[in-house]
Amino acid sequence: MRSQITLEVLEILDAIDRRGSFAKAAEELNRVTSALSYSVQKLEEQLDIVVFRRQGRRSVLTPAGKLLLDEGRQLLQASNDIVLKAKEVANGWEPRIRIAVESLQNYPNFFAVVSGFLQEHPSMEIDIQESVLNGGWDALARAEVELLVGAPGPVPSNQGIRVEPYGLDALIELISSSHPLAEQAANADLVDQVYPNLRRVVLHDTSVVDVARSAGLGLQSQRFYVQTMEQKYQAIKAGVGIGFVPTHRAEKAIENGELIKVAKPVMDKQQHYLAWKVSNKGKGLQELCRRLLLEGSAV
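Now predict its structure.
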């Protein structure tokens, strides 16, 4: 059955509701009042409902009319979004960007940039996934994502990938203050005695094609594997084991005494990268990359 509700009649209902009268709505839509009255009357006859009632000088929606317009406004918005997306695609703006974000990334800085980007390009769809070590490079090479944010080296060769430096960060090895061996692990004179007995919390490498690797595993036989940096951080705080965490993530917990530094040398600062395929000419991707690099947000 063909629907009697068209976008045109929904625009008429919307204008009448906002302006309060057929005459003012007709002025806004650059139509004659009789044409609007005819469209509404025809809709009421087809649906066998009353859409508007007179209330003084105003035209007010009936409960049925309000339901019709509330749902109809969603259709109007969807219609406008489709048109906007079509125009952007025609002008080289892709409708969607898939992004792999390295688990070490400083998320508040990253999402602040993304938020500003979306405010200016509201029709753009962003799809985020978290990657670990080789996993991000793997996803980019297999075209599962268009952008890789905060990936650690080494950079793959002969993959047609453009790479830009994207901040440095030091990892710090931590243990929960509630851990039974916390005092010994934090003591430079005792740490070597207890270090082999400390369970290490380790992130799974998300790589599928390349050989998976893990950073800072050491020689411990006891390991506790997790999928995300947040899981790793929370597991360490709960006393499951020790592990390396980005300094930016652990600062507050160290200050309030929840986490303690293990008395071992801090790992050297790591270079992280922003990366995308050279062949990708999408304007959305290029603009987002420009903003991220301008922010220069070290992880």
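The chain is about 40% helix and 20% strand.
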